[in-house]
Amino acid sequence: MAEGYIAFFDSGIGGLHLLSEFHRRCPWQPSIYFGDNENAPYGGRGEDEILRLARAAFEKICRFPVRAAVIACNTVTAECVDILRREHDFPIVGIEPAVRPAVRFVREGDILLLATRATLASARVRKLVSGIGGRSAIIPYCPANLAGDIEKAAPDFSGLDVGACLPQGKFAAAVLGCTHYIFLASQIARRLNCPVFDGVAGTVDYLLQIANICSKNPPKIDKISPIFIGNSKNKNRMLFEELF
Ligand code: DGL
């Protein structure tokens, strides 16, 4: 087994979905999680500020020996994954809106892409959407304050009503292009009456490939709990344990 941690980073709680999927598949692989909950949400911030916060997060992560890092935040991936890749010598995987799987699935009708303002405005995501082709139109939409409301509500999301922040219309599928929205996936699917897609499984598949981790034939060692770092480590650990 190669040495080092798989480091997960999100603006807050959203990345716990990726950590949890990864840990379910590779419970023996040491991992760390940094959620910048104090500064969440990132999605309404400018490009320079997001880069500054992401660099500060990587500084914390790099106090550990890192084997690979996962930007478990669509907003940070969209704004600065290429810069962070140039600044670090370990592989960095970033989550992106799962537009391609949605396009493959849909036979007819529009696809709603829900994401933060910064994600939708980024050159990376605009390129992804315009280059996708297929039969469906992709309709980008930023649900006002939703990531921040989810961050604040954690760990009890039952009081949140997504109805008010979703657009009217009929969609064949919706893409959850923000990892925070995944906490409300079933509510969003019910409300829009269509299937929802997220990039969690695809990102973890890719991580396993590039970090050269085999999720089959686990080594004969006990499972290792992830290490949570940062000021909100207890909140994130608690939510991870609920998800897992
Ligand atoms: N979880 C993040 C994402 O996937 C961002 C939420 C935010 O901080 O605005 O985009």
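^ D-glutamic acid complex. The chain is about 40% helix and 15% strand. Residues 99-197 form a domain with the Rossmann fold fold (CATH 3.40.50.1860).
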